[in-house]
């Protein structure tokens, strides 16, 4: 009689092992893809911030001043500049400077579709070098403010004026200046700041370093990303700024100043 052959299948244990291996492989692939997407988003956002800086400088060349941050829409607030509605906690006026992409209201967006933030130096400017004087008329007349967001004031006050409020630190601060060893810029360097709130977009509890970037004052934080378990809490903001020397240099080269 012919021998009867019985079909050999996988046992439950073998199936479990195979499924476990497949699960591990899929998990590794998904993790790698997620990491690549995150890296791409950060790269796209960083390039977007650099583009924003160039568009702000182009706006300054055309208009003789920096724009005010946006607040009620994607246009600067108020329209035409001057005394800004929210100099430290506003948004990048995407529609006003020609930034893309923007949302339906004209606000500039980062790679996570969060609105890009923007702050501009607004306090009284100071003398950049003694005995040169930052002034509109003579050595004893104080400069007319606002300086950076009003065309006539910027030209009248002159190139000797330095900002005196915006400062970038490596971690959150209680005062208006950085603690020892934590200064990224000084008080007389930054004319404007643009930053992204990162992937988390300030959803949930923000760490102290991220909260410092909410614009309650003129102090901002720039540092490498931190996890939620770090001392200062999660930090995934991305920050760029326009030094006053770069702003003046572009305006001089374009014949806008002095």
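-> sequence recovered:
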């Amino acid at each position: 009689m012919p021998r009867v052959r019985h079909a050999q299948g996988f046992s439950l244990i073998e199936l479990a092992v195979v499924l476990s291996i497949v699960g591990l492989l899929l998990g590794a692939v998904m993790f790698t893809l997620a990491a690549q997407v995150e890296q791409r988003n950060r790269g796209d956002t960083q390039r977007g911030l650099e583009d924003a800086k160039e568009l702000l400088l182009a706006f300054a060349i055309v208009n003789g001043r920096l724009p005010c941050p946006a607040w009620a829409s994607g246009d600067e607030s108020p329209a035409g500049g001057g005394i800004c509605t929210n100099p430290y906690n506003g948004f990048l006026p995407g529609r006003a400077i020609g930034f893309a992409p923007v949302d339906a209201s004209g606000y500039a967006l980062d790679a996570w579709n969060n609105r890009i933030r923007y702050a501009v130096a607004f306090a009284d400017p100071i003398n950049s070098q003694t005995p040169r004087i930052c002034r509109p008329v003579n050595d004893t007349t104080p400069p007319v403010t606002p300086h950076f967001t009003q065309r006539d004031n910027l030209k009248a006050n002159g190139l000797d004026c330095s900002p005196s409020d915006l400062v970038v630190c490596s971690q959150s601060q209680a005062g208006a200046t950085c603690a020892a060893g934590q200064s990224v810029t000084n008080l007389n360097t930054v004319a404007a700041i643009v930053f992204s709130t990162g992937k988390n977009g300030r959803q949930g509890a923000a760490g102290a370093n991220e909260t410092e970037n909410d614009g309650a004052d003129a102090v901002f934080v720039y540092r490498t990303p931190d996890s939620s378990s770090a001392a200062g809490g999660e930090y995934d903001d991305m920050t760029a700024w326009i030094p006053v020397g770069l702003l003046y240099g572009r305006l001089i080269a374009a014949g806008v100043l002095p």
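The first strand starts at residue 90 and ends at 91.
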